[in-house]
Amino acid sequence: MIMKNLLILFFVFFSISLYAQHKQKVWLDADTGNEMDDVYAIIRLLWAKDELDIVGLSSAHFNNADLLSFEKWNQYTTLGIKPVQISQRLNEEILQTMGLTNIAHPLGADRQMGRAWGGFEPRPSPATEMLLTTIKSLPANEKLDILTIGASTNIASLIAIDSTIKSKIRLFSMGGRYDVGRKVWSKNEFNVRCDLNAFDFLLNQTGLDWTIIPVETCVPYQFDRAQTYAKLDDRNATEQLMEKRWIETNPEDKTRILWDLALVQAYLLPKNVAIVEAMTPSDNHQHTVKIYSKIDLKAFYDDFWGMVVQKRNNFQMPSHKPKLGEVHYGNKVGGLIGQEGATNEVIGIEENDQIQQIKVCLTKTLDVVKGFELEVLKKDGKIQKLYFGNTTDGIWQAPYKVKKGVSLIGISGASGWYIDSISFLFSDGSKSPTYGGKGGDNDYKLQITKNDKGQFRGRLMGFWGSMTDKLESIGLVFFPLE
Ligand SMILES: [Ca+2]
Asked: What ranges do the domains of the chain cover?
């Protein structure tokens, strides 16, 4: 199992470049109600909200001929079905679950561009309206990246309504077929079939920066049902959205191709994809578009499942960025989901303090951490004891003597529901023994990192987290130095 062996490192970092540069604005348009992979793709993109400015999530329809002839479309009864409304409801559920309803989430068009026999009449919708407003308010040097993982009605309509916005967007879409070797297109693909007019309209646009991931590139990117169910944590609401979606929508499928997730990850992981230029199909205006021709499958799997674990532990991350001169609460690890524990923090390590010894308190069964005590020699020569966690009725371990001149810079160990084990990391690269049990699926490491010059980027001031009769979660509290 990949996850069992994957050591996930959580670095407390405050790279200036991350915050100083403007974040790329991104919009995702999804036919979320269609199959199960849109949910995975949306969640993966939303997990990138610290690196990107995700400004909108619009809904797309998945109108198709089967809805008129079959009684069911996946779990939905087709009688009176309103596809774009299903996508919209799911989009809202995802944003609510992740606490991100502040991201715009307008409704998209309920039908294709033009008519069944053709035509490029746009379908205005709240989505095209909000997209226009967003694009019009961009500074001169900025573009909006739009990702679309369903029928491209909303994006084609946007351009049909106002073609001047073409120079202000970069489009990334999933759909269509393209055989890179033979340089042959086929429009026989679901997203295209749901709005062939829109796809043709987009292919006829010159001056549009467009990158397409065709079916051929996505096909190898498959998830195994049993593995996916096993890896998604039942205690995490966001992960449950993904598991539930598979169970409800495509329960009989032992494997699924994650088409839409492939597009989102191709966008997020440009180093792990190959891009070729392709001449548009011969029945369209002749110019080139970009094709994601290959994806690094291992990098994609590792990225996705690594993020699942990382976000499971980090979901309570404070939203404010660290500033010089401001105490910062770093990411926490541990079983945060129930939030049954009381909040707990200790901040008292000052500049030039010397931690002399650390004592860890474990449960009676010795397999879970309850808390710890730091014995600090203050500048004025007095000894101060700092306590973290709930140390009543615990078993104290032999104290760990800290070397003189060495400072505490972080912790590592394993966590599950609770902090199963902990060890302490020091400025000279040394590490205390590990205290606690062997449990905990998630290896964690929280530490203050060094800059290029080898200087620590911050100073550890203490810890924050939550506790029941055990230590439930823990994060570093630190003072940024750069
Ligand atoms: Ca889709």
From this structure: 22-314, 328-480
Average pLDDT in the 315-328 region? Answer: 55
pLDDT digit string, tens, across residues 437-477? 998 888 899 999 888 888 998 899 999 888 888 999 999 98
pLDDT, tens only, 193-246: 999 999 999 999 999 999 999 999 999 999 999 999 989 887 678 898 999 999
Q: Is 302 within 8 Å of 272 (Cβ atoms)?
A: no
Q: Class for domain 22-314, per CATH?
A: alpha beta
SS3 for 3?
Answer: helix
**Residue 22's pLDDT band (cuts 50, 70, 90):** confident
**Going by C-beta distance under 8 Å and a sequence separation of 6 or more, which residues neighbour residue 80?**
none
Taking the centre of ligand 1 as the mean of its atom positions, its distance from the CA of residue 107, in whole angstroms, is 16
Distance 32 CA to ligand 1 centre (A): 6
Query: What's the gap in Å between 207 CA and the centre of ligand 1?
Result: 25
Q: Is 73 helix (H, G, I), strand (E, B) or coil?
A: strand
One-letter identity of residue 251: P
Q: In this predicted structure, what is the pLDDT of residue 3?
A: 35
User: How far, in whole angstroms, is CA 185 from its chain's centroid?
Assistant: 32
Query: pLDDT by residue (tens digit) across 28-75?
Result: 999 999 999 999 999 999 999 989 999 999 999 999 999 999 999 999
63 CB contacts (<8 Å, ≥6 apart)?
83, 110, 111, 112, 151, 194, 195
**Using CB atoms within 10 A of its CB, is residue 182 exposed (0-12), middle (13-18) or buried (19+)?**
exposed
Distance from the alpha carbon of residue 34 to the mean position of ligand 1, in angstroms: 6
How remote is the CA of residue 144 from the centroid of ligand 1, in Å?
20
Going by CATH, does the domain composed of 328-480 fall within 2.40.40.20?
no
DSSP 8-state secondary structure symbol assigned to residue 428: T
Token pair for 431: 């590490």
Cα gap 467→315, rounded to integer Å: 17
| Residue 16, pLDDT above cutoff 60 | no
Å from CA of 134 to ligand 1 middle: 23
Q: What are phi and psi of 237, to 5 degrees?
A: -60, -40
Cα–Cα distance, 348 to 340 (Å, whole number): 25
Contact 318, 329 (CB under 8 A): yes
The single residue listed with the structure tokens 């630190």 is 478
Distance 319 CA to ligand 1 centre (A): 30
